[in-house]
Structure formats: C-alpha cells, structure tokens
Amino acid sequence: MEDCLFCKIIKGDIPCDKVYEDDKVLSFKDINPEAPVHVLTVPKKHISSTNDLKAEDEELVGYIYTVMVKIAKQLGISEKGYRIISNCGEDGGQTVSHIHFHLLGGKKLD
Ligand code: 5GP
Ligand code: ZN
Fold first, then answer.
1. pLDDT tens per residue across span 43-67
2. What per-residue confidence (pLDDT) applies to 2?
3. What is the CB < 6 Å shell around ligand 1?
C-alpha cells in the first residue's frame, strides 16, 4: 500500500515515537494526543478498516488487544482505566485508512 501513511510508518519511511513492535504489530504515540496516554496500535498487514476484516484476521485483532493491554500496564494506566477504540469510515471519524486501535488514558475521559 504505497500511499498509506501507516504502512509508511511501519516501513520506517516516516518516523514515529515507537512504543512496541514485533513481527505482527507496531504501536506508536499519536502525533496529536487527546489524552496523556494516546498510543496507536496497527497490524503490519494492511487492512483498510474494520469493514475489511476477514475470518483469518480474528486472531490478529485479539492479539492487538492483548498487546494494548500490556502497553496500558507498562504505561501505568491499567488500575485507573483506559479506553480502546477503532474508528471506521467517515461517520466513525476514521482519517487514516489502515486499521488502527487507539489506547487512551491517563485522565478521566469524556
Ligand atoms: P482516526 O481519526 O483515523 O481514528 O485516527 C488517526 C490518528 O492518527 C489520529 O489520532 C491522528 O492524530 C494520528 N496521526 C495522523 N498522522 C499521524 C502521523 O504521521 N504520526 C502519528 N504518530 N500519528 C498520526
Ligand atoms: Zn497501510
């Protein structure tokens, strides 16, 4: 996906503030944080949105959640709580067409 911003970040063509990486996922700080902790986790495989998830991706989505829960613990927000969200499409407020999950915390969220 040549024109995909998050694919470029995954490839290292665009820098990011990396929080976690392995062979399946990359987690990095959101460039425009909406909370003291705002980390995005993306699969390295390009999937445009939740609408494009296939049965073969079920394990990957579960894996992303477990990674995010570990990141929340590492960043010290597990006890007080946090929010994990994935926006889909125009009405959902999705602005980057590579599926991503926001981890938000570090304050009482609206
Ligand atoms: P969406 O609105 O699609 O759910 O979330 C996209 C997120 O990506 C936004 O919160 C936005 O701040 C973040 N974002 C957009 N461009 C970049 C970038 O170049 N680097 C990083 N780290 N985050 C970005
Ligand atoms: Zn992509």
1. 999 999 999 999 999 999 999 999 9
2. 76
3. 5, 14, 16, 28-32, 40, 87, 93-96
- 57-102 pLDDT, tens digit per residue, is 999 999 999 999 999 999 999 999 999 999 999 999 999 999 999 9
- Structure tokens, 81: 């709580």
> What is the spatial distance between Cα 81 and Cα 42, in angstroms, rounded to a whole number?
21
State which of 9, 18, 31, 104 you would mutate to test the pocket of ligand 1, scoring each by most atoms of that ligand within 8 A of its C-beta: 31
Respond yes or no: is residue 38 known to be catalytic: no
The pTM (predicted TM-score) of the whole model is 0.98
Six token digits for residue 15 = 């820098």
Name the percent of the chain lying above pLDDT 70.
Answer: 99
Tell me if residue 27 falls in helix, strand or coil.
strand
Cα 2 to ligand 1 centre (Å): 17
CB neighbourhood size of 62 (10 A) = 10
Spacing, Cα 19 to ligand 2 middle (Å): 18
